Every structure is written in C-alpha cells, then in structure tokens.
Amino acid sequence: MPGQKPKNDTVWEELFIERDILRDIDANGIHRIPAAIISKKREARLMTKFDQLINRPQIFSKNDLAILPDSRSSYVIGRFNCYEPISYASADAIIERAFPEWIQSLTASNLYSESAALLCAYHAGLISDVLGEEVAFTVFGRMSTGHFDFSILAKQGGQTTQQPLTVDRAQCEIDGGFEGVETFVIVEVKNEAVDDFHIRQLYYPYRLWQSKVSKRVVPIFLTYSNEVFTFNVYEFERPNEYNSLRLVTRKQYQIVPTDIEIADIRRILRQTTVQTEPEKIPFPQADRFERVIDLLTRLRANGGTLTQEEITTNYAFDQRQTQYYTSAARYLGLLENTYEEGRGRTYTLSVNGMRLMSKAPKARNLALIEIILSRSVFREAMQYYLDHAQSPPKEAVLNLIRHAGMPLSGDTLPRRAQSVTGWTRWIMGLTTE
C-alpha cells in the first residue's frame, strides 16, 4: 500500500526481535551478525547501505545505532559515532575552470552519474588544483581492506568510550584513487548535496592504502550538485582512531557557466503567464530547491524512473522527505507517479521533465525559473525580492499564501512559507549581481 514502511525497516525489526539485538548491545556494547543471516531475509548489501544518517532504518535511528562491516561475511552493530556532518557555508568563492575542448566522449554539461562527475573533475584539473600537485588516476572499484585494528567512539551505559574493533578483509569500494609524487588521494563521490556521510567510506580505503603506499594518503569527500563541485579534504589525525577525521580545507568549482542576470529574471516575470494551481498536488514543502534538482538528476541517470523505496534507501532522503520532494517535482509538472503491486509507489520523469533535464545547465535553470514563476505565490515573492533587494519576510510570504486561497492552516503554513523563501533564494543565488 502507498506510504507503507520501507522493506529495510520491516526486516530489521524482525531481526532485532529474533536475535535480541538491543539486549546484546546493552550488555556487551556490540552485536555481531553474519551476512548470511541478513541475506536469508533480504540481500545484505541492500540492508546495510546507510551512507547518510537519514538512511538508517527507524529502529537504528530510535536507538542511536549504526552498523559497520568487520569482514566480508559479517557486520557489527553498536551505538557508534559513524557519521561526519558537512556544511557548505564555509567554502570560499566558487572557482571557475575550463574543460578540455578536445574531449568529446565526456560532456561537462551532462554529468548524470558519479563516475562521470569524477572523471570531469579529474580532466578539468580540479583534483590536481585542490592538492597543489599533478595526479594520475590509478585505482577504482571494490577491493579487500586487509586486516587492521581501530577504535571508534561509542555510547555505552550513558558514557562515550573508545570501542575497539577489528576488520578482517572486509570489502570496501573506492570511487577514485589518484596518485601524485607526494600524495595518494582517495575520493568518495556523491551526485547530490548531503548533510553528512558515513566515515567508513573514507576510513576503510584510507587504512588499506596507508599500508600499501609510502606516500601521504589524503581522503576527499566530493559532492556534485547544481553544477558545483565541492571538495571536502580531510586527514585522520590518529590513523588508528576512526573519529580522528579533521577537515583540512573545502574548495568549490564550477566548469559549465550557469550565471543568470537579474534582467533574465525580470524578463521571465514579464513574459510568463500565471498558471492555475495543479489539482490534487499539495503546495510544496521542500525548502532546498537544489535537492529537487538532485532528485531529477538521479531519475535522469536511472532512465527516468525510480520507486519510492529506491529513492528512500539509496539517496539522502528519508521516507517523509521522499514524499515532500517528489511532490514538489510533481507540483512543477516534472514528475509523474503510479502505484504498482510488488513495486509500490513509482516516480517517472514527465515528458516535460525529461525534456528539461536534457538541456544544458543554464538553459535548464532558466526553464525551471520560468516554471516556478508561473505559480502566483512564487511570482509575487520573487517580485518582492527584486523590488526590495532582499527576501520577503516570513509574514509577507504567509500573506501571499493566504491571499492565493491555498487550503493551508496551522503548522503547515510556516513550513510552506519556508519553501517559497528557499526557492526564491535559489533563483537569486544563480545571478551574478
């Protein structure tokens, strides 16, 4: 049925009861579970891929739990501090770089996969620029971690302690390894803006390659969202401590020019006709418009279709956010949904959505602005922004929504107002003025 609990949540709740996992963790600090036991119910790879905090099943979130592989055939569960938050606010100004004109097999304006984004960053010289030395692309893919011991911060009995763990030939994956004269770089890539990431994605490859090369090993977490490459460069201050990760620098780059002029926005306001509100689709509650674009990008990369389960499990959304952001894309006429027995809720790029996501970034953004400003509330909010050189205050946005006759009240009104403010700020953030 629509809105039903994700499969991972259901299966993990069964396993917690069958194996009395919480009691074991309360008594011993950890619970070790064979991959074969998990796979009897559902493929272990799908059941343990919680790359962001928000991806964790409800029983993990409720009990402040995380999971780590400790071999190729087993996992360990505990109240581990496994995740590192990311902020995009402290990065310097975006640096513009050119992409080699002679390359035809890779297009900087059409990066719909993580591997394509990484290759583009490499060939545009971004990775070398971040490190301050030329590098060569040398390794990628799945590999064995080898054997190593480490400690991780964990909560036990109301206190935080260093929990010792051992990893013995677990599987890890490297999106890209790059070697310079002085450094070896491990890069983990996400084709979306995320709030945090699982440190394991950097730590396991770091420990592996620290034992294999004599050079300094540099872990980098790279996000590509809205045509901006954000490099988070880290170091592990104490290699044997999982939580000794420290941010060294953050740099942002852009290859494809996407700057829009204020005059473009004024022109769109003049030329765009106000459309009636879509029927049976709620007014948006999705305040970060970049994430709407990330969702559409993921759909385009997957042939235009994803199930609700796939979006929730694999990307930086929980079930509620999946509903909010897919609904926002439907509100703009870019996404359609159906319900199929066995697959559940399925989302597909509409004809207009597929056409829009096929455009070059600047043309795509202009088309998105035109669609947004065809809705009366967003149009009026944008006009206020242009007239006053600042975002409209909260009460002004609330009045716009009320005057438009939206069937909203109570707590829902302020949350919808946040979406209006967020979307207009996204539009203004594209401008050069």
Structure overview:
The structure is a single chain. The protein has 17 helices and 17 strands. The mean pLDDT is 92. β7 and β8 (159-168) form a beta hairpin. The protein has 3 domains: 7-79; 85-147 and 166-254, Trna Endonuclease, Chain: A, domain 1; 262-429, Arc Repressor Mutant, subunit A (Orthogonal Bundle), CATH 1.10.10. With 433 residues, the chain is of the alpha+beta class. The longest helix has 18 residues, at 412-429. α11 (308-314) packs across α12 (319-331) and α16 packs across α17. The strands form 5 sheets. Strands 5-14-13-12-10-9-6 form a 7-stranded mixed sheet, with helices on both faces. The chain is globular, with a radius of gyration of 23 Å.
Strand order of the largest sheet: 5-14-13-12-10-9-6
Number of helices: 17
| Count of β-strands | 17
Q: For the CA atoms, what is the radius of gyration?
A: 23 Å
What top-tier CATH class of the largest domain fits best?
A: Mainly Alpha
Distance from first to last alpha carbon? 48 Å
Classify the oligomer: single chain
